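We modelled each protein-ligand pair independently. The example shown here corresponds to the pyridoxal-5'-phosphate entry; the chain sequence is given first, followed by the ligand as SMILES.
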Amino acid sequence: MKNATHFDSKVVHAGQQAEPVTGAVMPPIFLSSTYAQESPGVHKGFEYTRSHNPTRYALERCLARIEGSALTEEQDPSFGGFAFASGMAAISTTLDLLDSGDHVIAMDDLYGGTNRLFNKVKRRSSGLDFSFIDLTNLELLESSINDQTKLIWIETPTNPMLKIVDLEGIVRIAKNRGIILACDNTFATPALQNPLEIGFDIVMHSATKYLGGHSDVVSGALVTGNEKLAERIRFIQNSSGPILSPFDSYLVLRGIKTLSLRIRRHCESALHIAKWLESHDAIERVIYPGLPSHPQFDIAQKQMTLDGKPASGGMITCIIKGGLSTSKQFLEKLAIFSLAESLGGVESLVEHPAIMTHASVPPEERQTLGIDDGLVRLSIGIENCNDLIKDLEQALS
Ligand SMILES: *Cc1c(COP(=O)(O)O)cnc(C)c1O
């Protein structure tokens, strides 16, 4: 890495060097599946692309550095960063670190696909035991840990209720007890929050979202600053093979270069729009970590920051008065916001969790979590903020 210390510079340079043969500033997309050897076992460090690929390494090293892994090349060839074919592949790989019979404590309000992977796949195929609890209640965490507990899986802010988990609080209770602490950092991004620096062992991303940032690639990431964990993740990544392709690695690396710029706009517009929505008569409730009405506002102000000042991300959840029929009408009427799953891209998106992203969560659980039929989730893009407000205004009226 060059002397790039501020995050704005890290996203452009971290883990990068000019390509050694040509000096190309951007890493070429190395599509080759295999690499010529001079003599059996004598090669330039690359044998087969599932195991190592220069374009993927460039991305993985960048991921490692922007999430705060300090591992050297001697400790791990890609500094503890790993790129996967999807966010789900990254989560699945994390669960493969465990043994059958192990116990996992996970946040109750999770990305729908994570809930499905845990409950419908890994419980059966890996013999894992899961407890889903509200980790905003740290006493509940303390009393849920048992001798078999080997992983705590956090999302903060959560999807879609935007609950905030106190990362320092989790570390205080669960660190040094032989439990892997993992955080899905997709919503906050390393621009706002660095779980590894707080004491977490693994950070996971759906790089499909803010890291890629342009809604044109599906990808996932894991980062660890722990040498032993890096060795084990590398072994599983190579053994089961859910790697990111060279072309997609290039796209995510390209996206990350503007992460810092994009996040500034996402945060600024989302705060403005959240305040505007909160004052609108057609809205029952707005959930945004940057509003004083948010239940964990104080933790959010401390935990998510940009240049030392509170910044609360680009996601807003709100409940429209009138339930399903009104919220459907609202979603159909929006023009700039596209009605689509996913989030974190340059364009504004809106979705209906109960029907779309969280349909795989059983209805009773949705109700307990508060995923109401009038609840919609907004991903605020980088368009002009006033244009977005005008669009919301016409759809609400
Ligand atoms: C999208 C998402 C995932 C899953 O990632 P994919 O790239 O879609 O596989 C996991 N966690 C969160 C918070 C997400 O938003």
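The radius of gyration is 21 Å.
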